[in-house]
Amino acid sequence: MKKRTHWVVLILTGIFISLACNLPLQRQMAAISALELQQTLQALDQTKTPGALPPEENSLADAATDVFQGLATATGESEPPLPQATDLTIDQDGFQTYYAQSGDTLPVVSKHFDVEPFEISSNEAIPAEAYLTPGQVLVIPNKLAEPLSASAILPDSEVVFSASLLGFSVPEFVEQSGGYLSTYRENVKSESLSGAEIVQRVAELTSTNPRFLLAFLEYRSGWVLSQPGDPSDIAQPIGFNITGQDGLYAELSLVANQLNSGYYGWRLGSLTDLKFTDQSTGRLNPHLNAGSVAVQRLFSFFYSKARWSDVLYGAGGFSELYQSMFGDPWERARIVEPLLPAGLQQPLLELPFLPGERWSLTGGPHYSWNAGSPRGALDFAAVTKPVGCEASPAWATAPAPGVVVRSGEGFLVLDLDMDGYEQTGWVLFFMHLASEGRASDGSIVQTNDRLGHPSCEGGNSTGSHLHLARKFNGEWIPADGPIPLTLSGWETVAGEKNYAGYLHKDGQIVTANPGGPRTSIIVR
Questions:
Q1: Nearest Cα to 413, choosing from 423, 422, 400?
Q2: Handedness of CA 298, 301, 303, 306 (dihedral sign)
C-alpha cells in the first residue's frame, strides 16, 4: 500500500552558545523528539510488508533465551546458568528475583522496578553508585501490575558497535544478499556513497551495530534481500516520512538515533514506558536488557500495541528475520559480553593539551554523538588568538598511548588497547579537529603526542574547540556516573542541563562556561 505523505515541524531546542557544538546527523535530524516522532508516525500505514524470509531458515532462538536474566554476563566458559521461566514468578510475599545485568546500578534498577533503592536486597553487598556485578541475585518487591513482554530480542552486543562485529563485512554481506541495497547509491554531503557505505558510516558515527541496521531496513523495506515493491519506498525506505528528510542516509541516521535513545535511556533509568501508534502505553519489563528495550522502543514508533508483539516475536516477525539473516546472536554474545564487566575502571588519562597551557572548559557533559547518546563528552578551547572558527594554533594532544583507528571529517578515534579495533576496549573519540595536521589512520601515538588543531570542522560549532568522549566495547560511557571521566586527576560532575557541570580536583573547581571566563580556565 502506498505510504501517505506527512508534514512535520522540527523544533530545534539546542542551546545556542559560543563554542558549543552539535555533531552532524544529516540535516540536524537529531533534534526530532520522541513526541514528534510519535506524531509523525502514528498515521503511517500499519500494513507494511516485511522483507521475505528464506523459508528454511526461519528458526527461533533457544526457548531458554526468551527470558533474559543474566545472559549478558556470558563470557566464554564463565557463562552463568540460564534462568528458568519460573524465575519470573512472584513468591508468596510479593518479591521477585532479578539477575543484575551489564551496566546496572542500584539507582537505575530501582527505577526499572519502581521501588526505592533500600527496598532491594541481596546476599552480596550492593554498591550505592558503582556498576553491579553481572549475574548478582537481587530480591525486589513486585509493584508493577502488567509490564510488557519479558522476552529478550537481542543482546546488547548486537545493538551497539561491539566486538560481535569482528570478521563481519557490511559490503560483502550486502553484495552477497543481492537486493536493491547492493545497487543503491546516494549523494551524502556531495559525496557519492553506496548502500553498504551508508550503513557502515551511520553505524560507525553513532556506534550502533550495522547488523541491526541491515535487519531493520530489510524488515521495513525488503531492500537487503530483495527489491522494493513500492516506488515510494525509494525515498523513504524506513517509513519515517518526514518532509525534507529523504534518502537512506537520513532515515538510517534517525533509526540509529532513536535506537540509542532507547538503549541509553534504559541504561540511565530515564526510560520506563513505551507509547504506541494507537496512543496506548505500556510499562517496560524490568527484567529486559538494554538492547532489547532499544528494539522494543524503536518498533513502538511504527506499530500499534496490538500488533507490536506479533511483529517482534511472532511467526515471520523481526526476531525470526534477524536470525535468518545473521544466525544466533546469543551465541555471539556468549563470547563478547558483558560489555561493561564488574570492576571496570578508566585507564589513566591526561588532559588533551600540553602541561602549562591555558585552556577553557567551554562545555560540561553533553551528548557523545548527538541526541540519543549519553552525556559523555566535554568541550575544551585553547586560550589563544585568533578566535572564532579559524583552526586554533594550539595542539590537541593524546591523553594516553594509542593507535588512530579512524579519522575523517573533523573526527579522530584513538584506540587505547592498541589492538586496532574500535569495537573493543577503551576508545577516545575526538571531534572538531582540523584536517590540516590531524593524525592519520594507523598512527601510533604516545601521551602528549599531537593529534590535531581544534577547529569547527565536522559539525555545527560557534567557535574552534575540541570535543572529547569515551567508549568501552563499543558503548558510549557517560562523563558522570559509575566511571566519571577523569583527566589529569580532574573528575567530571554533570550539571542538570547539557553543557553544564564542572571538573574538580583537590578542592579546586573549574566550571564549564562557553564564554571562557576565569572560572572555566584549567591549566594542566
A1: 422
A2: positive
Smallest Cα–Cα separation from 489: which of 507, 472, 504?
504
User: What number is the average pLDDT over the span 80-96?
Assistant: 52
- The DSSP bridge pattern shows strands 191-194 and 185-188 to be antiparallel
3-state secondary structure 374-387: CEEEEEEEECCCCC
Kindly state whether residues 363 and 332 are assigned to the same domain: no
209 lies in the same domain as 326: yes
Residues 483, 385: one domain? yes
User: Alpha helices of 290-400 — where are they, by DSSP H?
Assistant: 290-300, 305-313, 318-326, 329-336
Can you state the percent helix, strand and coil of the chain, rounding each to 5?
30, 20, 50
Q: How confident is the model at residue 20 (pLDDT cuts 50, 70, 90)?
A: low
C-alpha cell of 127?
554498591
Do 164 and 224 lie in a common domain? yes
- Which segments of 106-249 are extended strands (E)? 137-141, 185-188, 191-194
Q: Say which residue the cell 528528510 belongs to.
A: 245
User: How would you classify the pairing of strands 460-461 and 466-472?
Assistant: unpaired
